[in-house]
Every structure is written in C-alpha cells, then in structure tokens.
Specification:
The chain is an alpha+beta fold. 34% of the residues lie in helices and 23% in strands. The model has no long low-confidence stretch (mean pLDDT 85).
C-alpha cells in the first residue's frame, strides 16, 4: 500500500510568523495535534506539535530566599525554592512567541509513492506522529499520520 492511498490531501498548515496562541486555536478548531509549517510558497520550513507548545510552557519557576540567621562574618546565604506556576499564567508568558521559535526544522518527509511499510519504522524510530507528504519538487501535497496508517492497514485486511 502506498502513502498516496491513505494520506490526507487537504492539509492544515501554519506559518512561521503565527503565534503560539494562534496555532493552539488552529489545533483546537481542526481537531489536530500538529501541523507542517510552510512559507508563502507552501514549502515546508518546519513542523510544530502540541508537544512543542507544552515544552515551551514552564510551570515551575525558581525563587531565591534568604536563609536566616545571617551573620555578617558568614555572608548572606540563599536557597532556591521551586514554585508551581499556574498553567494559564505560564501560557500567557509564551502565547506571543512565534512558531519559528519553537518548531522542529529537521522535518522528515515522504513521497506519495513511498510504501507504508517503509514509513512505519521511520515514524516509530523517530517517535513522530505525522509526516508531511511532498512531491518531487518538495511541494506539500498531503500528510500521513499514525492514525491514517492504522486505518489503511485495517482497510487492507478487509
């Protein structure tokens, strides 16, 4: 079975200048967890996923606290304390980051004529959930997800 038989042709994409806030909205509205990042010519410049967004959201911060008693001859001592930040507060700090700041630029792509049997080991080895499908010129023509592959394998068994 070939990738062209199972890929999604109408690909939801995002641009490198979009913000994390905008991308989260795109993901939510389309029920997806990641998307290729394309330039104005629809050439792939990266890929971004929910995992990339979560990596940049820091829910912990460190605070310095002075240790008492502080004696002049001993100097001032401090200890670091980790504090939990509210997720919404942490998100607001990164909401205006650009996609280009968090996207993966080392994008693995496949051709429509590639066999799903060849793509499966790559997705498993690289721990990726989606692979953009490009034509011979590198233009985006589709996307294939782990779910597409499972569905294709199921359909093939019928």
């Amino acid at each position: 079975m070939k990738i062209k038989d199972i890929m999604t042709e109408n690909v939801v994409t995002v641009g490198p200048e979009q913000t994390i806030k905008e991308v989260m909205l795109v993901f939510a509205q389309n029920g997806i967890s990641g998307a290729p990042v394309v330039d104005k010519e629809r050439k792939i410049v990266g890929i971004v996923s929910e995992a990339d967004v979560l990596k940049v959201i820091k829910t912990k911060n460190k605070e310095l606290k002075m240790v008492y008693p502080s004696l002049p001859i001993m100097g001032i001592s401090f200890i670091e304390i980790e504090k939990q930040k509210e997720v919404f507060s942490a998100l607001s700090e990164v909401a205006n980051f650009k996609v280009s700041e968090i996207m993966c630029t080392n994008v693995i792509t496949v051709l429509p004529t590639d066999s799903i049997e060849d793509v499966i080991p790559v997705m498993v080895r690289e721990k990726i959930n989606r692979v953009p499908v490009v034509d011979g010129s590198g233009n985006l023509v589709g996307i294939v997800t782990r779910g597409d592959i499972i569905k294709g394998l199921y359909e093939k068994r019928k």
